[in-house]
Design a protein that fits this description.
One of its GO terms (biological process) is glycerol catabolic process. This is Dihydroxyacetone kinase, L subunit. InterPro entries: DhaK_L_YcgS, DhaL_dom, DhaL_dom_sf, Dihydroxyacetone_Kinase. The chain has 204 residues and is mainly α. The protein has a single domain, classed as DhaL domain (Serine Threonine Protein Phosphatase 5, Tetratricopeptide repeat). It is built from ten helices and no strands. Helix 5 packs antiparallel against helix 6 and helix 7 runs antiparallel to helix 8. It is globular, with a radius of gyration of 16 Å. The N and C termini lie close together (5 Å).
Length: 204
């Protein structure tokens, strides 16, 4: 997997557009079990990354990921900023400049565990980790990008019937069941956007 400056610029623009398109839906999901601002927060974060896209794209991939993570921490409100930021900063710190599939899978695994520690949560707690864990497993298994995207979408939908054990949604107890987790949903949207781009454009 090799990404050049053009790829990074395109991916930033596509992720920004996808979050903007689904901003209202993400906030509706969050209104049911949270503060109702996840869509707006994610849009603000992706806009901030987009504003720095040229500087980010000029960096080697590990440094670019770390920079994106830092921007998200500084611009996304609530719990999502630190969680997404941790994921990307840990990826950036752990990757070589030209990672192969094995290096990426191993580093992603460590980054997901860092997110779990940061959020003090794990699989089944109804968070974005319920997307990240199965996605990481597919990456480790060398699944095709389209398969990884399908996995992310399915995993996000599966959070609907989970009982929230972390975050504001956990205060609702049984009432959190029946609502898709907004963080899992935004994670699936971003994962799908990245995977479909890689399917069409990135060199193996």
């Amino acid at each position: 997997m090799q990404l050049d400056a053009a790829d990074l610029t395109a991916l930033i623009a596509l992720c920004r557009a996808e979050i903007d398109l689904h901003c209202e839906h993400l906030s509706v999901l969050d209104s049911a079990i949270g503060d109702g601002d996840h869509g707006a927060n994610m849009r603000r974060g992706l806009e901030a990354v987009y504003a720095e896209r040229e500087a980010i794209a000029a960096l080697p991939l590990p440094a670019a990921l770390e920079k994106i993570g830092l921007v998200l921490v500084m611009s996304i409100g609530g719990a999502a900023g630190p969680l997404y930021g941790t994921l990307l900063m840990e990826l950036g710190r752990g990757l070589p400049d030209a990672p192969d599939a094995a290096a990426f899978a191993a580093t992603l695994g460590r980054a997901v565990e860092a997110v779990a520690r940061r959020g003090r949560s794990g699989p089944g707690d109804k968070t974005l980790l319920d997307v990240l864990y199965p996605v990481q497993a597919e990456v480790a298994g060398r699944a095709a990008p389209a398969r990884i995207a399908e996995c992310a979408q399915s995993a996000a939908r599966a959070t609907e019937m989970m009982l929230a054990r972390r975050g504001r949604a956990s205060y609702l107890g049984e009432r959190s069941v029946g609502h898709e987790d907004p963080g899992a949903s935004s994670c699936a949207l971003l994962t799908t956007t990245i995977c479909l781009y890689l399917k069409e454009h990135a060199a193996p």
